[in-house]
Amino acid sequence: MTSISQQFGRDEWTRFTPRQKLTRWGTLAGCALAIVWALSSIEVIWAWVWGAPEQIGDLFGRMYPPDPTNLVTILKVLWDTVNIATFATAFAVLLSLPVAYISAQNTTPNRGTLWLGRLILVTSRSVNTIIWALLFVAIFGPGIVAGIIAIMFRSIGFIGKLLGEAIEEIDKRPVEALEATGASRFKVIVYAIIPQVMPTFWAVAILRWDINLRESTVLGLVGAGGIGIVLQGAIDTFNWPEVATILLAIIALVIIGEVISAFLRRRIL
Amino acid sequence: MLKITDLVKRYGAGDPVLKNLDLTIEGESVVSIIGSSGAGKSTLLRCINRLVEPTSGSIILNGTELTTLRGKNLRAARRKIGMVFQGFNLVDRLTVMENVQSGRLGYISTWAAVSRRYPKADIQRAFELMERVGIAQYANSRADQLSGGERQRVGVVRALMQQPEILLADEPTASLDPKTSEQIMGLLRDLARELKLPVVINIHNVTEAKEYTDRIVGMRYGRIIFDDEPAKLDGAEMDKIYAGSPHADRATQGAETP
User: Could you tell me which residue ranges the ABC transporter domain spans (chain B) (predicted)?
Assistant: First the structure.
């Protein structure tokens, strides 16, 4: 009986052969070269980069103290922002229900509807909210309506996708049992599918509202209503103290939104 | 009366799971179907209420040919066939009462189903049946809060709420401990007598099959090779039913037919 080491008479071991080592070092060097080339090609003005700390200090100096004279207007526009997020989420939730139903493999009526559902989801998800907003500002003109519809379009894909996946993951056995009682398709959905996806439904709706609250703060940059319009106005006029107030207000809003959604999640789930 | 003639079920291109099977169940007898896993017991039961589509053959329940029904007519026929499942198949997040009433879904209007406004007669019958099996105190509890035996009782009551003409039970006790299992078998036997209802039970536990049922049907590789009263099931017959594996049986195409 000989052990493997006796049999082969080896007392040295390396993880890679010399040839493999060469390849690995070569790859590493290649990556480093690519990074250096990429950095040199984007024309960074290094003086500006090195001057950044000074600029940050300067900007903060001009922002401080925040100027609260327009606070009432800011809060009013902030409320618009909350409304954009909330209405858009509500509409998106309603519209995403049928989309989720036809894009889940186990509930979709046929292959045609399955692909239609997936097409809606992909279209909605692959276009950023800001791009949707640019489109709808052109259609509806600047203002809240464009903002609501832009966020809604982006949310349908998100909610529909997650809800559709929840439908695909349900326990099929209760569905089978209710089909065996002679219940119609609609009643089977109401009794066996909806109760099972309810927790996901609420979790996804709350999460999307949370995200929409943040997204709606930048919609104003393209004229689709909300706090972004005021923010851009203040930046364009170099009114840095007011910019500071607006930024603080946005941070406060996001924190409040986070607290509310955490509370709802605990409450409902 | 349930009359199955020349029933064949084939999944895909392989050998059929049910091979030209004939079975007649008359009156209010409790029939158990035994056989090793893969013998086709579950497929046979699911062909009756068309959860599985039979490939060919005929299944007639009290004068209605079940194999050709579609849509509305199929749903109407399914109302008359109650089914109890191995995994109970309750909707966990609904209350026991909602689960029980879901046995009536084929009868009530969509609005009544959605709004949970069940007919008074249905509520009364639900309470009677729940009291009969001892789960009335859980009417407002969520189904997932009950123990296994209690959950299967909910499953039985749901099936009985359909006022079925036959009750199918697919390994109703396989997920339960031995004591609870005997209680459920006793309950099925007693309910069959009380409601004058034929009951067909797929079961692995041969001792329970002998004790609680009037007739035993032994299946092997998609054929019935034993069909008699429990006392006639002796060691030799048991060996025939449980010998070999379904896979090996299919490979040899079951050369010797009983």
Answer: 2-246
Is A176 in Cβ contact with B89 (below 8 Å)? yes
Comparing CA positions, the residue from A250, A266, A262 lying closest to residue A82 is A250
Residue A161 and residue A121 in contact, taking contact as beta carbons nearer than 8 Å: yes
The count of CB pairs under 8 A between chains A and B is: 80
CA dihedral A241, A247, A252, A254 (to 10 degrees): 170
| Domain extent listing, chain A | 15-44, 71-169+203-268
A201: closest CA of chain B, how far (Å): 14
Interface confidence (ipTM) of the complex: 0.87
Cα-to-chain-centroid distance, residue A18: 46
Give the one of A183, A195, A196 whose C-beta lies nearest to B105's C-beta: A183
- Report residue B21: phi and psi, to 5°: -90, 135
Question: Cβ(A200)–Cβ(A268) under 8 Å?
Answer: no
Is A177 within 8 Å of chain B by CB? Answer: yes
Alpha-carbon distance A182 to nearest alpha carbon in chain B (angstroms): 4
| pTM (predicted TM-score) | 0.78
Does the beta-carbon distance from A182 to B94 stay under 8 Å?
Answer: no
Record: contact B78-A174, CB cut-off 8 A? no
B142 near A CB under 8 A: no
The residues, any chain, with a CB within 8 Å of residue B43's CB and separated by 6 or more, are: B9, B17, B18, B52
* Kind of pairing between the strands at B199-202 and B30-34: parallel
Nearest CA in chain B to A181: B79
A71-169+203-268 CATH choice from 1.10.10.10, 3.30.310.50, 3.30.750.24, 1.10.3720.10: 1.10.3720.10
A252 Cβ under 8 Å from any chain B Cβ: no
- Kindly list the averaged pLDDT for each block of 10 residues, start to end, along chain A of length 269: 62 85 96 92 86 90 86 89 92 94 92 94 91 92 90 94 94 93 92 92 92 89 85 89 91 91 84
In chain B, the domains with their CATH numbers are 2-251 (3.40.50.300)
Q: What is the dihedral angle through the alpha carbons of B182, B184, B185, B187, rounded to the nearest 10 degrees?
A: 120
CA torsion A95-B92-A267-B116 (nearest 10°) is: 60
